Amino acid sequence: MEILVAYFSPTGTTAKVARTIADEVKGDLFEIKPAKPYTAADLKWTNPLARCNREKMLKKEVPCAERIVNFSDYNAIFIGFPIWYYQEPNVIDTFVKAYDWTGKDIFLFATSGGSDIKKVTASLQPRMKGEILSARLLNKPGDITPWLDTLAL
Ligand SMILES: Cc1cc2nc3c(=O)[nH]c(=O)nc-3n(C[C@H](O)[C@H](O)[C@H](O)COP(=O)(O)O)c2cc1C
């Protein structure tokens, strides 16, 4: 089983979780980076004019900086991200659209300020031909290993 752990994490919280998962499942790590990195000002959602709010309101496509060249090598792919506005960030939509997910086992994980990941599977599954087998909010580091233990990897 070849496993990839792809994650977007502009402020580093989800990145830590991604590294733990990659270590435990012996997977490769790939950071999903937007072509234009987010600055702290870009993420200041309390400012109505901040980039994050404009992208959300205008449903802007956020291009990725890099492509995974050996995507077809992987059978199982974890996708991690922070919850933004109760959902996946726009750059995750771009990432999902860029690959053929047919036959892939897909696992989602997220960190957040408290919001759940539940809406995300419903949003992404219709756009992915592979099956999202599980989606988990991993705000507590202690939840990571018990979740991985439930997955057939
Ligand atoms: C633009 C933006 C929108 C956010 N929206 C939510 C939200 O709807 N619900 C929530 O619980 N947290 C929200 N957060 C908080 C992040 O999900 C949380 O801080 C996350 O752990 C950050 O992960 P990262 O360090 O990997 O970027 C938001 C943060 C930003 C920057």
Question: Explain this structure to me?
Answer:
The chain is α/β, with parallel strands linked by helices and 153 residues long. The protein has one domain: Rossmann fold (3-Layer(aba) Sandwich), CATH 3.40.50. 27% of the residues lie in helices and 20% in strands. It is built from 5 helices and 5 strands, in the order E-H-E-H-E-H-E-H-E-H. It has helices at residues 13-25, 51-57, 90-97, 118-124, 144-150; strands at 3-7, 28-31, 76-82, 105-111, 131-137. The chain is globular. The model has no long low-confidence stretch (mean pLDDT 97). It binds flavin mononucleotide. Residues 9-15, 43, 45, 52, 82-86, 111-115 line the site of flavin mononucleotide.
Overall residue-averaged pLDDT value: 97
**Content-based structural category:** alpha/beta
Rough outline: globular
CA-to-CA gap between the ends? 7 Å
Total number of domains: 1
The CATH architecture comes to: 3-Layer(aba) Sandwich
Kindly state the number of beta strands.
Answer: 5
What is the top-level CATH class? Alpha Beta
Lay out the secondary structure.
Layout: E1 3-7, H1 13-25, E2 28-31, H2 51-57, E3 76-82, H3 90-97, E4 105-111, H4 118-124, E5 131-137, H5 144-150
Parallel strand pairs: 1-2, 1-3, 3-4, 4-5
The protein binds flavin mononucleotide (FMN).
Task: Write a concise synopsis of the structure shown.
Helices cover 27% and strands 20% of the residues. It has 5 helices and 5 strands; from the N terminus they run E-H-E-H-E-H-E-H-E-H. A 5-stranded parallel β-sheet has the order 2-1-3-4-5, with helices on both faces.
